[in-house]
Amino acid sequence: MKPDLPFDRLSPELQEKLSGRMMVTAFCMAIGLPTDQAIADHNAHLNEISRRESLALHEVSYLRSKAGGWAEEYAEGWADGFAEGRATAVLRVLQARNVHITGNTWERVTDCSDLATLTRWLNLAFTVTRAEDLFAAEPGHLQEPSP
């Protein structure tokens, strides 16, 4: 992840939400709402937006850094740790269910930093019978016909 993520690298939908949120905050301050209350409300909304599953990890990190006043390096470390925790959860569920995990599967899961993918794998980890089946459900993946 690059430090100082520019606003224009965020999805258009997220840019629109953030712009609207900034206008609401500015309006609240303009009509006399105490600054700390307006900022606290703004940050609460940023945190709420960051909890949505559809955001990319760099977008979650951006929102968290802005809402919490985090340094970019801290936000990057947080994002890496968040993805690592999600990957660990996938592997722990498979292990708890006694599903055999190959080295390739372990590496693929731990190398992934895409939250949507990790969330999909975590949901599948509760039902697959083979760890490789996590990847068979990926969009665009061609499955071999069953014998």
How many extended strands? 0
The shape, in one word, is: elongated
- Helical proportion? 55-70%
**C-alpha Rg, in Å?**
19 Å
Mean pLDDT across residues: 79
Order of SSEs, N→C?
HHHHHHH
Helix/sheet category: mainly alpha
Compute the separation of the termini in Å: 43 Å
Low-confidence stretches: 141-147
- Main beta sheet strand tally, sense and closure: none
Provide the β-strand percentage band.
under 5%
Number of helices: 7
- How many domains make up the coordinates? 2
How would the blueprint of this fold be written?
Blueprint: H1 12-30, H2 35-50, H3 57-68, H4 72-96, H5 103-111, H6 115-125, H7 133-136
Describe what this molecule looks like in 3D.
It is a single chain. With 147 residues, the protein is mainly α. The protein folds into 2 domains: 11-69; 74-136, no CATH class. The protein is built from 7 helices and no strands. The radius of gyration is 19 Å and the shape is elongated. The N and C termini lie far apart (43 Å). The model is unreliable at 141-147 (pLDDT under 50).
Short description:
The protein is mostly helical and about 150 residues long.
Keyword list:
147 residues; mainly alpha; 7 helices; 65% helix; disordered C terminus
